Amino acid sequence: MDFSIKPIDAKSAATGHKATKTACLIVGVFENKKLSAAAASLDGAGLIAAALKAGDISGKAGSTLLLRKPEGVAAERVLLVGLGEEAAEISEKAYNSAIGAAARALSALGAADTVIALPAVKAQSVQWSVRTAVLAFRESIFRADGLKSKKDTTPVTLKKIAFSVAQSDATAARNALAQAVAMANGVDLAKELGNLPANYCTPTHLANTAKQIAADYGMTAEILDKKQIQALKMGSFLSVAAGAIEPPKFIVLKHNGGKAKDAPVVLVGKGITFDTGGISLKPGLNMDEMKFDMSGAGSVLGTMRAIGEMKLKLNVIGVIPACENMPAGNATRPGDIVTSMSGQTIEILNTDAEGRLILCDALTYTERFKPAAVIDIATLTGACVTALGYHNSGLFTRHDDAHDALADELLAAGKESGDTAWRMPIGELYNDQLKSNFADMANIGGPAGGSITAACFLERFTKKYTWAHLDVAGTASRSGAAKGSTGRPVPLLTTFLINRAG
Ligand code: BES
Ligand code: MN
Ligand code: ZN
Questions:
Q1: For the Cytosol aminopeptidase domain, which residue ranges apply (predicted)?
Q2: pLDDT tens profile 136-160
Q3: DSSP secondary structure, 433-491, as one string
Q4: I want to staple 128 with a disulfide (CB 3.0 to 4.6 A). Which of 124, 152, 322, 323 is the partner?
Q5: What tens digit of pLDDT does each residue of 13-35 get?
Q6: Does residue 282 have an active-site annotation?
């Protein structure tokens, strides 16, 4: 799928889109039967107005009507999409539904190329419109049939998508387009890794993916094996890997896009390639979905790929502790006490609370980078799904000025990219729940506020830098008929980094 920017030149500024040659021109109409400016510019013969009047299209956001070769129009087809209430600048919601409806309609058409000529969106830049549409169109053609012996053979006919923009917006739109395509590629990588089952997506596979990204985009990848992880005294990480035959890997991927002396942003991703729960074994129903437990790692790799492709001028390091959580004769038992790389001891009361056990050592390791900010991303708790559902990732940081600023940056990046997060509290009272009679802390804090006590656990390993935690248990994948990875939070993270790079 090829995207491009089509600036409105002097000629088309005069005649509107009448002369636009394309297999399918997309223009908007409103619920009150009014036409958008682009639609009106086509309607010399009054065909569109008549279709609206006759009720062939309601104009409600997301409604569509296809017209073939309207009189006096160069395009082979005109796709009318409803934009809801009339406005010179439409709402984000109307734009989202219009783009979604257009993508759906086009997937059922024989059109090989299209030109999108929708109105500007209220309080949003042309960059936003372009990025939103690119992500939606790419989402609409994503297929997860890599391991089916019979591939989905319905061809994707739509090859070229052009955005009609004002001449003055063309440069900004082109830059936005390059970034949006890179972001979509990053989302696709995260989805592919997430969907890949644990017998393919092993810690070694994640490490090889990091090496490939390094080779493709001029980054450096360092892969530490079990011996090196032992030498670093990552007793907590290794306790999770203990029962697995599949070897653990500790992955460090560096993008040096900024000045050498600039402190990096570090992304730390949970890379549990399968979470059985360990000796605290999970129930069987839907356990297959625990292949998605490396989605944090997948989102780090997806984001690194995206910023590599866009050559982002920022130093960013991806850190991924990767292993399986398996039951076995040599697996960690409930009650076992382990010593983390930080020296703090942990009583493992539940081996299914393993994400925090691998992340804490990765967070300690991260101190060496003297980071400007650290964000960890993890499918950490079912409790986060209970708290926030499937729509928002949970965002946790300390509550002081520096961390409030980081939280605001992340929340804004989430809103901007449509990949939203919601801030949750942490603090002393919740921390009390992590008391252990035998070690410095327990790895669980009981059923109350489970996503919060998990964040409090991580916070104890992040005292030396500015840190935020994203719990993506509810957002990184979908269950049921639409089962699959979403690629979240690659859009949030990439947007955050783009904004940081300035
Ligand atoms: N990977 C799970 C969390 C999870 C649950 C992700 C559902 C996605 C969907 C995590 O390792 C886990 O098992 N957490 C436990 C923690 C509990 C034992 C304190 C949980 O949420 O039940
Ligand atoms: Mn678990
Ligand atoms: Zn897990």
A1: 350-357
A2: 999 999 999 999 999 877 778 999 9
A3: GG--SSSSEES---STTHHHHHHHHHHTT-TTS-EEEEE-TTTSEE-GGG-EE--TTHH
A4: 124
A5: 778 899 999 999 999 999 999 99
A6: yes
Residue corresponding to tokens 């049939």: 145
List 150's β-bridge partners, or say none. Answer: none
Q: Is 48 helix (H, G, I), strand (E, B) or coil?
A: helix
Q: Whose CA is nearest to atom 22 of ligand 1?
A: 382
Catalytic hit among 6, 160, 282, 478: 282
Q: Which atom of ligand 1 sits closest to the CA of residue 282?
A: 13
The question of whether 463 is a catalytic residue gets the answer no
Taking the C-alpha atoms of residue 375 and residue 469, their distance in angstroms, rounded to an integer, is: 6
Q: How many domains does the chain have?
A: 2
Tokens 């009106």, residue? 40
Residue 176 included in any domain: no
d(CA 148, CA 151) in angstroms, rounded, equals 6
Q: CA-to-CA distance for 468 and 492, rounded, in angstroms?
A: 13
In the numeric block, the tokens 């309080």 are attached to 123
218/143 same-domain check: no
Joined together, the tokens standing for residue 239 give 């306790």
Distance separating alpha carbons of residues 426 and 417, to the nearest angstrom:
26
Residue-level pLDDT at 432 = 98
Look at phi and psi of residue 440 and say left if phi exceeds 0, alpha if psi is from -120 to 50, else beta: alpha
241, β-bridge pairs:
none
Question: Is 359 close to ligand 1, i.e. is its CB under 6 Å away?
Answer: no
- pTM summary value: 0.97
Which ligand number lies closest to the CA of residue 381?
Answer: 1
Closest of 128, 162, 118 to residue 29, by C-alpha:
118
Same domain, residue pair 245 and 338: yes
Instruction: Report every protein residue that has its C-beta within 5 angstroms of ion ligand 2.
Output: 275, 352, 354
Backbone conformation region of residue 378, classed left if phi is above 0, alpha if psi is from -120 to 50, else beta: beta
Where does a domain end: 164, 198, 219? 164
Domain holding 33, by residue range, is 2-164
Pocket test for ligand 1, best of 286, 287, 352, 388 (most atoms within 8 A of CB): 352
Q: Is 450 in the pocket of ligand 1 (CB under 6 A)?
A: yes
